[in-house]
Amino acid sequence: MLRLLTGLLAGVAMMPLCEAETADSVALKYRSYRNWSLKLPTEKWFPVKDGIRLPHSGGKLFAFEFSGTNLKVDTDGDGELDRDIKALVDPKTMVSTTRVILSGADASGKPFRYAVRLRNDADGWEWAPGGAMVGTLQTEAGPLSVKLIDQDGNGKFNDVGSDAMIIGNTDHAMMLSTTLFVDGKLQQVLVAEDASALTLSQYTGATSEIDMSTSFNSKAVLLSSVILSADRKHSFDIGAIEGPVRVPAGKYSVVSGFVGLGQQRVQIKAGKMKPLNLLADRSRKFDWGGPVSSEFQFARVGDQIQFSPNAIWFFGKAGEQYTGWNPVGKSPEFKVVDAETQVVLEVAILPGSC
After folding, report:
1. How far apart are CA 124 and CA 267, in angstroms?
2. DSSP letter string over 249-277?
3. pTM of the predicted model, to two decimals?
4. Tens digits of per-residue pLDDT, 295-312?
5. Chain CA centroid to CA 103, Å
6. Which of 151, 155, 208 is nearest to 179 (CA)?
7. C-alpha angle with apex 15: 12 to 19, nearest 5 degrees?
8. Which residues pair with 26 in a beta bridge?
C-alpha cells in the first residue's frame, strides 16, 4: 500500500506565514537554470522555425538560423544574429540540446532576461522556457521558496491556469493558482502583471474537502498529484498530506502526477477519469490507483502477431492513465490462446524491459 502524495504544498501546510507576510507582497526576480530539473504539469515544446516569438521593445521575434547542430541567434532582439551556438548531441538519443539566454527591454523599457532550452529531434528544433520568477516566503519555520514558470511560452508569468507554480523544496509544479493552502487554511494569491511580486490574503469563498491519499492503492510512492478546477482558477498538488485537504468548492480534474519506486518514474494523466465534483461543506474520499488494467493494439503479419510498446495503454481504478515508464519496467506478457481449446500457443514479452 502506497504512502501517499508528496506534493508541492506539503511543506506549505506545515509552515505558517508570519502575519506581516500575509498582507505584504513577496518580491520575485528572474532566475535561469543551467540544469533543468523542474517537472511541469502540462509542459510544452514550441517550434522554433525562424526564431522565438517573445514580445520586447524591439519587436516580437528573436531570430534564429540553423545549420546542422550549429545555431546563430539574435540574443537581444535587434534583428542581428550576434551569437554562434553549438548544440550537444546525446549519443543515446541522438537528440541535440543547448540553451541560450535572450535579453532586451519590455514595452515599458524595463530590462528582462529569458532563458530558453533548445532541442532538435524528429520534430525539428523546438524550445521551452528555462527559467522562473523566484522569491521567498518568510515563515516561522524558515524561508520557503516560490517559483513561477512561463509554461505557455508567451513571455508572461502570471497566466492563471496556464503557467506553472512551485512552492517549497520540490521540483514538481502545479498550475498557477489564485489560491494556496498555507498554515492550514486557504489564502488568495495575486501575481503582479509583470510578475515582480505576489500578494497573499485570506480566501473567503466556499470550500470543500478531498482525500486523495487514504484510498490510493500502489506499491510505489506518489510523488506528485496536481488537480485543477474546471474554471482553471484553482490548482493544488495534494502531495504527502495524509487525509482530507481543504480546497475551494467546484469541479476538478487530475492534470498530472508522478509515482516512483527507486529510480523508476511513471507519469499520471487524466485518461478516462471523470471530473471530481467537490461540493461546498462536504468531504469526498477519492478511490484510485491499482489494480491497473491495460488496453493494446496488435497487427497480424502473415503467421506473426506484432505488439508495440507505443500501442499499450495502462489505466487505474478511476480511469487515470499511467504513461512514460522510465525505465521501461517489467513487460506485460501477451499470450496467444487457441480460441477453441484455450491452449496457450505463444507468449510474447517486449524487448528492452527490465
Report:
1. 25
2. SEEEEEEEEEEEETTEEEEEE-TTPPPEE
3. 0.84
4. 888 888 887 878 777 788
5. 26
6. 208
7. 110
8. 198
